[in-house]
Amino acid sequence: MTLQDLIALLPELILTGVAIIILILDLFLRPEQRHGLVWVSLLGLGAAAIANGLVPTQMASLAQGMLRFDELSKIFNYIFLLGCALALVLSLEYLWRQGIARGEYYTLVLLSTVGAMLMGSSADLLMLFLGLETLSIPLYILATFFIGSASSQEAGLKYFLLGAFSSALFLYGIALVYGATGTTQLDALPKALWEAMEGTPLLLYAGVGLLLVGLGFKAAAVPFHTWAPDVYEGAPTSATAFMAVAAKAGAFAALLRVFAFALPALAESWASLIGVLAVLTMILGNVVAIVQLNLKRLLAYSSIAHAGYLLIAVASAQSPVLMAPATSSLLFYLLVYTLMTLGAFGVLMLAEGQGENLSLSDLSGLATRHPWAAASMALFMISLAGLPPTAGFFAKFYVFSAAIQAGEWGLVLIGVLTSVVSVYYYLRVVYFIYMRPATVERPLHVSSLALLGLALAALGVLVLGLYPPLALSWIAQILRALP
Amino acid sequence: MLTLITFLPALGAVLIGAIARERARLLRAASLAVSLGAFTLALWLSFTFDPSLPGMQFEERRPWISEIGIGYHVGVDGISLFLVLLTTFLVPLLLLAPWDAVKERYKMFSIMVLLLETALLGVFVALDLVLFYVFWEAMLIPMYFLIGIWGGPQRSYAAIKFFLYTMATSVLMLVAIIALYFTSNLSTFDWTVLQSIQLDRVLEFWLFGAFVAAFAVKIPLWPLHSWLPDAYSEAPTAGTILLAALMSKAGLYGLLRFGLTLFPTAAAAMAPYLLALALIGVIYGALVASAQKDLKRMIAYASLSHLGLVAIGILAMSQLGTTGSVLQMVNHGIIITGLFWTVAILAGRFERRGLEDFGGVMKEMPRLAALFFIFMLAAVALPGTNGFVGEFLILLGTFLTEYKIYAILGASIAILTAVYMLWMAQKVFHGPTAAHIEKDSRDLKPREIMLLAPLVAVILWIGIYPKPLLDRISPSVEALVSQAHSRVEFVQELLQIQPRSSEEPPGGAP
Questions:
Q1: CB spacing of A431 vs B164 below 8 angstroms
Q2: ipTM of this predicted complex?
Q3: Rounded to whole angstroms, how far apart are CA atoms B455 and B468?
Q4: Which chain B residue has the Cα nearest residue A430?
Q5: Cβ separation of A423 and B149 shorter than 8 Å?
Q6: Taking chain B (510 residues) in consecutive chunks of 10 residues, what is each chunk's mean pLDDT?
Q7: Model pTM score
Q8: In whole angstroms, what is the distance from residue A194 CA to residue A421 CA?
Q9: Contact at CB, A469 and B65, closer than 8 angstroms
Q10: In B97-152, which residue ranges form alpha helices assigned H by DSSP?
Q11: How far is A460 from chain B (nearest CA, A)?
């Protein structure tokens, strides 16, 4: 490890440091003082973001070929940090209300973010695996954070068992790829592939398939999605929100690094495989979401469905020419997805009383009780459905244009038709908010910090919908520096 | 200028959002001020509009998403000018009207109407395909709220059905727009550039089909109209008027502006089939209207029937007929507003809408009856009303093309409309007065007359002196239609040359 490596790792190091500091501080703080920990975390996230901006990127890999800090890692880091900060801001009051405002919460969230960042910056399959585990293990714990609740324990255990299983498959995939090519370095893979293709491609195909299974599990792509609804429902909503964003973003960072960048020689086979996954994911996610009455389950299936659209972007990155549009559409989608999903969960957190599990009808009459929360929830739903003038529209627009450019007509047609299906259940939420009178008077637990978070997410969704170049030019400009 | 007109209502909606909902008078005043402001600007626009120029005026171009060639490009010509005017003219009336359905949540209502106004205006002025699509889809959300919050008993069903129906075909148009972008290879979504490209013929058919599907649902063209009876009859009257008078025009306008110019060959080749659908719509709408027992549903089907005729005028691609269609779009907007409105007043006074529930209303409410008769006669296209001018031009123009038969059969609309309209008028306004009619009847209040009078004035003005409108519409229509024709002929010539050139090589080979 040289000094240069340490500098490039500064964002991750800062977050890890802050996570440890929080763990120590927690020992000395009285319960009512723990509010301060969120500010420490936000400070750490801010510092990491600044470091992420200042540290110069480099083409060569670092730390003996384990990591790289290129422009792509930079964008991924920003998205992860934003998602983490927003999730913390939205959940502070919720944690108190639910009686789970413990210091470890922040440590775990920060460490999980570090894991996602390592995934986005990995230059080696083994590093990717380490990142994946660093991301996942805190998430398993976060899912069980309701200590007394059986469903939360069940969620955590289920997530852990299935997660461990998929990690093992992923690791096995790495081993097979190593066996076939003799390397685990992402940089070296494209060249090694050509040689491997002549020998025993079966080993290679099996390895690549297992990698896809492992990452598909984290991304909650069909048919590896079965854990998601139960885990999303049982875990504390704040953890669910973070999980829905961090695990998915991390998984797609890895999918992009592995498939689009390291396995171009196999593009034809993995593109059609991922295309099949995308179709299954979009159809099942959207269709099953229609019948959900529980809000968290509905959002779980919605997040499955969105994995399908993101997979279209990955499947479109089939050749060097298509790399730029596919990558930038994926990044833009992830950014928008982060904002709108966290926003939607944020409103749920405001509405959820202690030990409650909200269903659709619990939102009825929200419009009269709290017009602003109602309006922002409606905005997030409209954006998730991909309707203009919200950012969700342009997110889908870019993904579909990248896919049409790649000639993936079938994916696009299924994509647009399933988004019509999705309109049905997203508008049902809007229907309950605006068109049903409240049956019982339910309080809304509003805190100024959570409202600030919601306002930021809503503003982001609206501004990126009206003027997408704000993020898109920036992404495109950074990506232009990529080889 | 156009940007200001388009976004003024949305800006107003945001400001209204900041007013407390208890301050009802202030809310009304603010929404009226905003919508009248837009109307004033649109009036000024039409006075400074130069009738001698067929092309786009008041154009504005700004980079929007320049990475992929999406620009903010707006402009009006003689076709869109009057749709902008119609939109800004109707919205203040709708906001001011004392709707029974909108006694509560007026704030939300005015916000939604104003947002919808922005989306509609955007559709009419947008010259970039993505910009157009954004406005096109943005119309759906406020309309969903209007139907869903203030609608009738089946409102949630009607609202979602309307939404899914229109969205399902709109997304196909989106795919077609993106496909057009990549096949043209011009890196632009600008309509002015894209209309000059020559597409592969098979692809052109598919793309045209996708566009037409989106437009046909919005118009709606038979057989894609099945959302219409539900949405029209469940929506609150203001929503029904917005749907029938303005949103259907968005579909017709899209067909004319984008369907015919981007895909002229496909449009010409498909015209007979589409004309047949439109004609079926005309007759089917009229027949179903005559069988309705519910007044609002009857007007809804009457609207469907008349919109079919407007579509015939556009699809036949004659200059005269298309000019008539554009004029008739405005006329239909005015007439259908009047009809839905007077029926709503009747329904509101007596709290029922069945045809059988009425009788002898004329004696009790002469002023309402007088206004209704004017709207009805305009719908029947009596000479002297605006309906006559528009329908006459459509039929004449279509008759002069190869599609004579559609003009001849389409002319039956005048008779059919007269049949069910007069029959309905007789049932409702004449005959013995039912007991509950006498009890509940209150004739129009001055405010209602004040709001309906502008509609009557426009009907008579266009009916007697349509020249100022036609002078502005016809140059633009001529330019559009002749360009479409010349491109169709160009392709036909190409096709005539090609077979010969493909025969030559075998002859020269030995």
A1: no
A2: 0.91
A3: 17
A4: B145
A5: no
A6: 90 88 85 92 91 87 86 91 93 85 82 93 94 93 91 87 91 92 86 84 91 92 87 89 92 92 90 92 92 89 92 90 93 93 86 80 84 90 88 90 87 87 86 75 83 91 90 90 86 73 43
A7: 0.92
A8: 42
A9: yes
A10: 106-125, 129-138, 140-150
A11: 17
